[in-house]
Amino acid sequence: MSKSLTRNLSHDELEKFGAEIEALRARTVADLGVRDARYIRNIFKTVRWTEVIGRAALMIGAFLPMPWMIGFWIVGALSLGLSKILDNMELGHNVIHGQFDWMGDPKFQGKSFEWDIVGTSDNWRKTHNFRHHTYTNIHGLDDDIGYGLLRLFPEQKWQPLALIQPIVAVFFALFFQWGVAIQNLPKGGYFGKHGRAARRELKVAGRKISHQLIKDYLIFPALAGPGFLVVLTGNLVANMLRNVWTYTIIFCGHFTTEVETFHRNVLKNETRAHWYWRQIRGSSNLAGGFVLNTLSGNLSHQIEHHLFPDVPANRYVEMAPAVRDICRRYGVHYNTGSLSKQFAQVIWRIVRHSFPSRPSRARVASLQS
């Protein structure tokens, strides 16, 4: 993209724009209640039951002859994969954001909830809840721009290793939970001034990783005895299904063609209204129905999530038409499209920027606006 698709707003227009976004949030929060609590509790039950069905199918299938074993294996891997997707996207991600703290239910408290991936929720709160949502798409501040592995924008420095990033991207998708796990871990300094804190953080991460690996690749497979490999491969496929799906949704929400990135200059005297404006310009939505919304943790409404990260995500589908109308009236581009269209744009970015590329003058100017 050579220039912003969003027109510049005057100070008064920007403040009015922000006030309308704030008013929408206030109306929604004031309406939270029983149906929202019921929704997240039903998601919690679905996560648990699909896990039970998946693990039971894998266990039973391990003792059945062909082709019954294959059939049960497929059902088990898919059901367990669905459980892990829902746990990661609709339950864990949203609860950790504090979207359901108002319920007062210990099971759904953002500061204490732990999810079924190798990364700790505490690490995610630092990298995602704070850094990413505060400095969305700002070069040098938002670590989610390429995750330190991929060059997705011309402003990122090109290096020869970028030539193989289409291959790197495939492996990153398959093992995405590991990228999340190590993203904010200290890379050194274990014996320096802050060595104790670094070692403690590494120890916590190692404990969580060990727990996940032992659970999925030792305890449950061992329970199947001679069917060890049947259960182990089913668990491996379930984890990979979750990884690829999570990667796809997150990348479609942040790295499509019309998504904008920013220079850190935008933080100078940034108001809340300008922050809202930046969130919309740096996000993209996916057009779909109930199934896509649920499986994506409602991150099919990434724009609404960036505007309202602590509002229950099941409300985004209701808020989206109002946000879109506000954007239309103020000339703010509302980036949305089908999953296939948005993901094709992500693939284009990965391939295009594996080769040397430079931002245009118009793009450099838009980065700092």
Question: What labels would you give this structure?
Answer:
mainly alpha; 369 residues
Strand order, biggest sheet?
1-2
- The proportion of residues forming helix, as a percent range, comes to 55-70%
Class computed from helices, strands and strand pairing: mainly alpha
Distance between the termini: 15 Å
Strand-and-helix sequence, N→C?
HHHHHHHHHEHHHEHH
Shape: globular
* CA-atom Rg in angstroms: 22 Å
Major sheet size, sense and barrel closure: 2 strands, parallel
Unreliable parts: none
Strand elements, count: 2
Strand proportion, as a percent range, falls in: under 5%
Helices, by number, come to 14
Mean model confidence by pLDDT: 93
Descriptive notes:
There is one protein chain. By secondary structure, the protein is mainly alpha-helical. The protein is built from 14 helices and two strands; from the N terminus they run H-H-H-H-H-H-H-H-H-E-H-H-H-E-H-H. The chain has helices spanning 11-30, 34-61, 68-96, 121-134, 165-174, 176-182, 195-223, 228-254, 272-281, 290-295, 302-307, 316-330, 339-352, 361-367, and strands at 285-286, 336-337. It has a two-stranded parallel sheet. Helix 1 crosses helix 9 and helix 2 (34-61) packs antiparallel against helix 3. The radius of gyration is 22 Å and the shape is globular. The two termini are 15 Å apart.
